[in-house]
Amino acid sequence: MRGFIGTYGTALAGLAVFLFFVVAAPNFANPVNLLNILKQVSFLAILGIGFTFALTTGELDLSFANLASLAAVATGGLIHNGYPPALAIAAGLALGSAGGVLNGVLVTRVKVPSLIATLATASIANGCAFFLTAGVAFVGRWDPGFVALGRAHVLGVPVLVLWMAAVVLIALFVLKNTRVGFHMICTGEAEEPARLAGIRVRSMKVLGLTLSGALAGVTAVLLTANLSSAAPTMAGDYLLTAIAAVLLGMTMFEPGRPNVLGTLVGGVVIGVLSNGLILLGADYYVQDIVLGLIIIGSVALSASTLKKAAFGV
């Protein structure tokens, strides 16, 4: 029983919270509202899975939100100025991935701890985003095909939910069914034994951070398409919530370890809490308080993993 609670307790608590809001919050169980929760969680989950990749290799990435904002203004700026959507999408994905590669090089070659390296990258990305926009958002009536990436529906299901499902399935396959995924996990679990076993731990760390940046780029494209606008701070609010989703996920399914399913469920729990509190009429700051409590509780259960990722100790 103790093992069961340790593995599934947080998920069961999330289910209890969901059932509470079904009973207490008006219109919470409305299918339209439930789909809206999943739609809002999609950005959070994709960013969180990127962070999960980085943390799996034993590194932190605190730059993904700023990289997403930079990729968004690059994508939005190109669309706004009439360039082909394919070029705009490629630019957003490339910028996010390039930021991840930069983080990987700083951590593995320059030997800067990931906590410091990714904070520096975040600052650079933030400055570049304001440089590209002069602090003014790109807004307009954009190419319908591009906008459909974030607004379309397939059989009544928002396409954002399908994008999220695709990212989750691919991430699960990579980490659980490929040699590369196994090497990434080994690198994060025990770096020196992994190196002695012939695993290229530097490459795995670069890959983890690059995937985090690449998924920031994916989120940027989808967020820009969904909002038909791009601003230099548009993804900033996702930093703490995405990290909280990952940390909450580390308390379930594979306790103490970053895992994709945990991140997904953690994101859904945070989305349910946010939506339910709004429907109950709670003040806006209550959400911030609850989020802070989630982070504190999750870190308390995963402190050793985070310490190792942040400082390499």
List key phrases describing it:
mainly alpha; 77% helix; two-stranded antiparallel sheet; single chain; 3% strand
CATH class of the domain at 26-235: Mainly Alpha
**SS-based structural class?**
mainly alpha
| The CATH homology group name of the domain at 26-235 | ABC transporter involved in vitamin B12 uptake, BtuC
Shape, principal axes of CA atoms? globular
- Compute the gyration radius: what is it? 19 Å
Describe the largest sheet. 2 strands, antiparallel
H-E order: HHHHHEHEEHHHHEHHHH
Taking pLDDT < 50 over at least 5 consecutive residues as the criterion, the unreliable ranges are: none
Q: Which architecture of the domain at 26-235 does the CATH hierarchy give at level 2?
A: Orthogonal Bundle
Portion of residues in beta strands equals under 5%
Assembly status = single chain
